[in-house]
Amino acid sequence: MTHISRIVTSLLLSCMTLSATAGNFWSRFDKQAYRTRLWGISAAYVTKSYHFDSGRQDIWGRDKIMNGIQFGIPVQPYFGYGLGLNTGIFYEHFFSTMDDIHFYEHNLNIPLMAEWRVPLGRELSVFVNGGISMDCGLRAEYVFPDNLFDAIGMKYGKDGMPKRVQFNGIAGGGVQWKAVQISAYGSFGITDATDHGGQQCKVNLRLSVLF
């Protein structure tokens, strides 16, 4: 009986230890145990290309990506126990050159992603997210070297040009320490990029300061 009692006691102690460990793990997901920051400002390096059956293309039809910058206001409500949203509103500027002809594009980007955040401390967390995003073209234009002050606007959605409004699937993740957040995202079009088909593909490397 003594031997059996020791086994039972050991099992009970093990269960109590596991329960305490699990409790400590899940307690870090409590909203009160993590310093939440709802919104902020951000800057990012972004790339964009269009993918067709024939391969990747930039606005000129070359096998290249277009470079750009992004500025915006990220909004990231945290509901507790790892669950939250990642959204906001962002301005994007893309630019590309071929044979001294410059192309400039101004876009508005609005993502809406579900987020799973793992707090590693009150001021430290890692996260992954996924959802959809909308891109809305504000203006796109070509500037020629002999006519710098009279740009020619691109006609959205005509003659194989990109459509003004596009929807994308988007996923990403990152790390946040105090107010500083570093994140990366990738998106791929779920609607046709042009009247000839194709999907828009973007990569985003973002630095944010949250308040």
Biggest sheet strand line-up: 1-3-5-6-7-9-10-11
- Average pLDDT rating: 87
Helix content: 10-25%
Classification by helices and strands:
mainly beta
User: What is the total tally of β strands?
Assistant: 11
Oligomer: single chain
State the helix count: 1
Terminal Cα span: 62 Å
Strand residue percentage: over 45%
Largest sheet: 8 strands, antiparallel, barrel
CATH topology assignment of the largest domain: Porin
Name the shape in a single word. elongated
Strand/helix succession: HEEEEEEEEEEE
Topology:
Elements: H1 2-27, E1 40-52, E2 55-57, E3 66-75, E4 78-80, E5 83-98, E6 101-121, E7 124-144, E8 147-153, E9 165-177, E10 180-189, E11 199-210
Describe this entry's structure for a reader.
This protein has one helix at residues 2-27; strands at 40-52, 55-57, 66-75, 78-80, 83-98, 101-121, 124-144, 147-153, 165-177, 180-189, 199-210. Strands 1-3-5-6-7-9-10-11 form an 8-stranded antiparallel beta barrel. It is mostly beta strands.
Brief summary:
By secondary structure, the chain is mainly beta.
Q: Descriptors for this entry?
A:
211 residues, mainly beta, Porin, 8-stranded antiparallel barrel, 11 strands, elongated
